Amino acid sequence: VQIASRISTRFDEREASLAPIVALIARQYREQPGNYLAFFSSFDYLERVLAQLQLRHPELPVWAQQRRMDEASRLAFIERYTHDSQGIGFAVLGGVFSEGIDLPGARLIGAFVVTLGIPQINPVNEAMRERLQTLFGAGYEYAYLYPGLRKVVQAAGRVIRHRDDRGTVWLIDRRYQRPDVQALLPAWWQIGEPASAT
Q1: Percentage of residues of the chain with pLDDT beyond 90
Q2: Which of 2, 39, 71, 140 has the CA that lies 20 to 30 A from 77?
Q3: What is the C-alpha to C-alpha distance for residues 22 and 24, in angstroms, rounded to an integer?
């Protein structure tokens, strides 16, 4: 598990994050070709990074989750991951491809998890945060941080499915360096030194 500590994926810094994320994905793929999944917090973010990657590295094989996919389209997405294939699939964090799929061995050798998966700020989540703050004194953690990191761990879990599996997970956001965030990640993860994305 590697942390891309120089990249901020906060909403107001997303534009600046595009080029470093593209550079990181391309570098990792070139250093270790194989099958990868790249997870994003929204379709908009996914599409912006994908467009930049295709512009700067048109030779890289990529495919993406669509906003509305029927069962046949979802199956076709998964079937691209064979023991002999190579490429990068783009998907939404918390969506159908970030949990409940099994791609053992060479079918998936790595994942990029962009952002902490924190739920969108809206009136419902804010009401929940306020209530949880009153009840437990940790409203932000219960309403936003814990659910977000649960999605991150589920997505990262696509890489290691069996005892003999090996792979690389990139956690892309400087907030992954925070001790309170790292304390919520699985204890068995071997987190490497924070790495640059360039």
Answers
A1: 80
A2: 2
A3: 5
Element (H, E) at 92: strand 87-92
Cβ contact 34:83 at 8 Å: no
**Locus of tokens 């467009």:** 51
Tokens coding 21: 């994320």
Chain centroid to Cα 46, Å, comes to: 10
In angstroms, the Cα distances linking 10 to 17, 50, 91 are 9, 18, 19
Low-confidence ranges of the chain (pLDDT < 50): 197-198
Q: Is 126 helix (H, G, I), strand (E, B) or coil?
A: helix
Q: Which two tokens stand for residue 177?
A: 């360096």
Residue in this structure with the two tokens 């997870």, named with its chain if needed: 39
Amino acid at 151: K
